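Sequence, structure tokens quoted for completeness.
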Amino acid sequence: MTAPRTRSPDLELAHWRGRPLRDVDFDGLRARGVPGPCVNWRRGEFDPMLRHAVVFRRGSRFEFARDLQGEDVEPVAAFTLLACDLLGALLDIVAWHPRTGRLATWLGRTGLLGLDDPCPATREDPLRVFADVSAWLAAGRRGVVVVDERLARPVLLDTAAIQAMDIAQAEAIEAMLRQVRLPSILVPAFPHERAAA
């Protein structure tokens, strides 16, 4: 069950401007093992997945094609989902292009999709990290998907235990978590040290 939601009208409005999934979209998702209630209109516990024309930008960001009037862009049809924080507050909109697996956020405010699913992330009940959105949806949205490694890293480093779906993904997660950039540590020179130099 998802956490109670803190409303963010701009995010919800932007998301709800999308179109419902078509029968062919549901057929494609079912072929990936995704049950209908995990994507359909507020059935069960989930917000719906909608269809938008988007333009993927560099990094892990996207723009809605409707906001790029007059620009020479090639939009693609992508599915969008609302991304929430650990307490259920809306953070961002995530676009997913199933054919390529590409994921991106609209505002760059989250690194993980699925944080609002309560999980103690203990050794007995680890946080499940899925390699792709379709596997996460097929598992009933229980766990998370990495959308932006830079933003996901601090959250995952603060987690007691992570469950990867296979060894290759576990190695990829471990490599991502090792990419911590430490800051430079400076010590000011004191007057008596400068004189001795």
